[in-house]
Amino acid sequence: MRSAARWTLAAIVLLSACIVSPLMLLAQQHVPETGSSKGIVLSPFYTSLGTAEDDEIIKDLSKMCGGSPDHAFDNAADIDAFRGMQGHGVLSVHSHGIVDQRVNAQGINDVLISTSQLTSFESAQDIIDDHGDRIRKYITPGSGAWPFWGITPKFAEKYGSGRSNRLIYVNACYSGDNPTMSSAFGGTYFGYIGTVGGSYTFPKGEAFFDEMTNIQQPPDQRTATIAYNRYAGGGGVLSPADSDLAISLNPLVNGDFEDAGNSGDHLNGWPTNFVAGGGPFDLPVNPSDAGPDGPDVEASQEEVAHGQYSARLGRWNNDPCPPPYEVSALPNPGIEPDGDDQMSQQVTLGSGGPGSPTKFNLTFWYNILSCDSSGGDQFYALIQDSSGTGPTEVPLPTLPWIPSAYPSAEALGWQPVSFDLSAWAGKGKPITIIFGVHQDGWGDLTATYVDDVSISCQ
């Protein structure tokens, strides 16, 4: 008989001409990671300057530990939106820029970056911003100049500084001509020299963020300096040359199984395995009646918690509960394997350096389908650290086991799970997250669908 289962503001003039010129990255190295905050993308001229770069940067910043980035496009990227940049780990701005000797009565060479908010005056006059700087706004109707408010370094200092472990990327003309804006923001600042156009900045910005959010590389191999030198440099300036700031990322990839990758396999990022016998819990087996070994793990659209795909573990076919099927549990030889179908992913939970997140939490959903009336089959989730000890079992909700489900399989419904991974945080060593289904070889199949696997951090 089988055992039971355990189962500051200025008005500025924006000129229409931009040409190719070098770029620069100005940085102040303080901490290695951006922490658990979200990113933010501000694009006051999203439609007119082109949407491709901003869209790609949003896609990359969605990999951040803090989740999908905030954003404001076109008219929404006004003064208030720029005030809201405070507290974000990564700031990306795509706009027009200028050096304010062209608009400032005192001839100060500050870098100014445009918002999408129009000024309300229609002749040249002095304007006092909210930090007391006198800025003269010149408007020449019909000349191609536009009367938008722009942020000054003092504005950036008030609303965008205070975090040394922050990355600021400003795709705007003159944004890196001098250190006034980068010094005001602090952190690591990436700007451009002189006038630039999209055909020049887009491939550099895209490659820069692609590299900094490449989860396949450890944080020390995808720093701002490495990404800049590898993909965004070439005639630019990098100061200092050794910024080691890295973006804190969600360490787990393709947890919703929607990404088919280059291979077209929606299990991309999840290696599969079959372990013959009783598995990590020495569960019951019936080798004399067992069917062929697995692994039987595949992406599925049969049962999903959200989206279009989930992962299914365990052998399942068009007739998963064939007769004879009785409470006495007569075997059905040759149908069910005696062993464990597994999928896994190795992750590293922070580098342990200053600014690195210290709290991580694993969440996922699962749904069991089974023909097993006595509970010899089992679904489990494990954490295996690099020491070789363990593994640690993730507690699952207590569920009533399925009574005899013949002649058709019965689903328990989608169940959410949350598990604290902080004990493994900041060690700089990988752990492996393992999902598995044990089948006992009796012939009454069990499968489990897993979806929306995610790791959040604080």
Structural overview:
This protein is of the alpha+beta class and 458 residues long. It has two domains: 9-239, no CATH class; 272-457, Sandwich (Jelly Rolls), CATH 2.60.120. Helix content is 12%, strand content 30%. It contains seven helices and 24 strands. The strands form five sheets. Strands 4-3-5-11-12-2-13 form a seven-stranded mixed beta sheet. Helix 2 packs parallel to helix 6 (198-212) and helix 6 (198-212) packs across helix 7. The two termini are 47 Å apart. 48% of the residues are buried. The model is unreliable at 1-31, 122-144 and 401-408 (pLDDT under 50).
Please summarize what this structure is.
The protein is α+β, with helices and mostly antiparallel strands and 458 residues long.
Strand content: 25-35%
Mean pLDDT across every amino acid position: 78
Number of domains: 2
For the secondary structure, the number of strands is 24
Q: What is the assembly state of the chains in this entry? A: single chain
Low-confidence stretches: 1-31, 122-144, 401-408
Structural class: alpha+beta
Terminal-residue CA separation? 47 Å
What's the arrangement of strands in the largest beta sheet?
4-3-5-11-12-2-13
In helices, the fraction of residues equals: 10-25%
Shape: elongated
Q: In this structure, how is the largest beta sheet organized?
A: 7 strands, mixed
Q: How much is the radius of gyration in Å?
A: 28 Å
Number of discrete helical segments: 7
